[in-house]
Amino acid sequence: MSAPMVTPELKALLRRVKLGRCLDTLPERLALAHTGQMGHAEFLELVLADEVTRRENTSADRRAHAAGLDPEMTLDRWDDTAKVTYDRAIWNELCSLRFIDAGHNAVIMFPVGVGKTFLATALGHAAVRRRYSVHFDRCDRLLKRLRASRLDNSHDTEMRKLLRVELLIVDDFALQVLDPLDTADIYELIVERHRSASTVVTSNREPIEWLALMADPLLAQSAIDRLQSAAHELVLDGESYRQRQNPASPNPQILTEHRPFGDHHDADADTPKVVPSHWRTGGPIRLAGDTAGTVVNSAASGRGRRRSSPNPAPQMSGKPRDVQFRVVVRSGGRCR
After folding, report:
1. Residue of 112, 111, 106 lying closest to 92 (CA atoms)
2. 284: which of 38, 46, 113, 131 lies 20 to 30 Å off by Cα?
């Protein structure tokens, strides 16, 4: 006996009760019920479970889009083979999302490109699926929007939206100097959300450096102290994770690794290197592309000295030779 067919009358009825998307999986479910000899109640439960799952996924995708989350940065897409080191216990605690219920924060720090934004966004997606309200924004764009809201008297409305959200994710925090208005906005956000709502911050700088970038030292210290006092700190180190997302890379496993902090040993001393980040202090700093010489920091005097390049540019000697040019004029398809 063949499996039951989906009739046009059944399709029309499903569409009338807003269950038209069930038709995508209904033929397969009918065949499964026929071969497995399922009862009517079991079959109905299976079909309705499919519809509930579809609606939940659709709702989560819409809320994630409204929150500003990148759809590609989810927990299941994180590459565990990446050479990125961090405290697994802290990460597992963050993935449990208990810090949101407790009103705690998370600070994800250090080198460029190791996946800070990816992990913070993945936490946002997990929170969205658990039906927390989430908002993701880059720090400079967030402050720019708050500054613009002062012009049309909507600043209080924008602040209330940010204070009301259960999980606020601020990416690339304090990469630039913050003026008095920006400092005041950051202070208000952190103080008003302290232990009542969760904030996730990613940054390439340490919290001690944030203080120097904020205009008002007193407001800065008060805000950062509150943020840190209730925060899980996740420090990442390793190779650039962005190279694994490069579609033009023929072999994503062959990557350039970040050196550990403070490690300046170079096996190839003749190759100029550029120090990529502020926390790599000490040691020689060679300027790439300097053909006349290389600048070396002097620890004793604090000044740079120039030494001769191991491969000096060849010098021209003698008189310049006369060079004759022959001009060819094309006319009528022929050369003269």
Report:
1. 106
2. 113
